[in-house]
Amino acid sequence: MNKKSFLVGLILVILAIVIMAFISMSGSRPVCQEGDIDCLNNNDDEMETQIPVVSETKQISSSISEYQNAELGFSLKYPSDWKKEEANAGVTFIIPVDETQVSTVATLQAAVQVLPGTCAFPPVTTIKDRETVKVGDKSFNMISMDNTVQGRVYFNRMYSLQSGSICYMFSFASISANPTTKGLTGSNVTQAQNNNKAITASADKNFTDMVKSFGFVKGAEGVDETKVK
Q1: Domain 3-25+91-210, CATH 2.60.120 — does that match?
Q2: 25 in helix, strand or coil?
Q3: What are 109-128's pLDDT values in tens digits?
Q4: Which residues fall within 8 angstroms of residue 119, CB to CB, at 6 or more apart?
Q5: Which of 60, 149, 174, 175 is packed most tightly, with the most Cβ within 10 A?
Q6: Domain boundaries, the chain
Q7: Which long-range contacts link 71-74 to residues 24+ away (Cβ below 8 Å)?
Q8: What is the CB-side half-sphere exposure of residue 148 using CA atoms within 13 A?
Q9: Proportion of the chain above pLDDT 90, given as a percent
Q10: pLDDT of residue 226 exceeding 70
Q11: CB-side exposure of 73: number of CA atoms within 13 Å?
């Protein structure tokens, strides 16, 4: 391997790590502690305060669920078998891989991040596709990347939507290992490679459908503290 090829490979590996870190932000909300300025004190017997539900998930059909987050201001539909992991700035979905098929898909993830400022994709060295996707009155920018580094196949697709001073960033990532590292040989290698492509393509389509189902949600209005007695 010459120096140029090594540097290109290194850049692609770093890029994949950055994108995976970007879409894998997850965690629970901090517990409201007594004395915090944002906490609601419901110890007063003379006044009952209801804490609004900021996110909810409901079943739309046998295979589709809808996620709504009033605090972050959006809703979307996604396959019900995707595992949801919420974070303060968005939500990540872990996409299951059919283990009955011969494949080496190691990671399938989709995520939505709500970020302040102007939308900007991570800097990349190679872009497979770039386009603007119109859905109703919304205009999404899209890029996709497809690279192979040291036998691993990386596929990423990202959409962005600017709404005022807020950027909604949608990310999909697929990582497939080299079949030979999993002990596959002969025709099983070809079968795994074909299944990897089919599994990734199916998840990618579901991801794009999720993005197209995106809608804005208006959160519940707060109570004017000057009028609370």
Answers
A1: yes
A2: coil
A3: 999 999 999 999 998 878 99
A4: 141, 160, 161, 162, 167, 168, 169
A5: 174
A6: 3-25+91-210
A7: 71/219, 72/114, 73/114, 73/166, 73/216, 73/217, 73/218, 73/219, 74/112, 74/114, 74/168, 74/214, 74/215, 74/216, 74/217
A8: 5
A9: 67
A10: no
A11: 11
Query: Left (φ > 0), alpha (ψ -120 to 50) or beta: where does 117 sit?
Result: left
Which tens digits make up the pLDDT trace of 155-167?
999 999 999 999 9
34-55: per-residue pLDDT in tens?
334 343 344 444 434 444 457 9
* Rounded alpha-carbon distances, angstroms, from residue 114 to 3, 108, 183, 186, 206: 39, 20, 41, 45, 20
CA atoms within 13 A on the CB side of 2: 1
Please give the Cα distance from 79 to 98 (Å, whole number). Answer: 14
Q: Cα–Cα distance between 67 and 93 in angstroms, integer?
A: 11
- Could you give the CA distance from residue 154 to residue 147 in angstroms, rounded to a whole number? 5
Is the Cα torsion angle 71, 74, 159, 199 positive or negative in sign? Answer: positive
Burial 146-179 (b: 16+ CB within 10 A, else e): ebebeebbbbbbbbbbeeeebbbbbbbbbbbbbb
| Token couple for 158 | 């990202």
Residue 203, token pair as written in the block: 């998840």
Structure tokens at 122: 């991570």
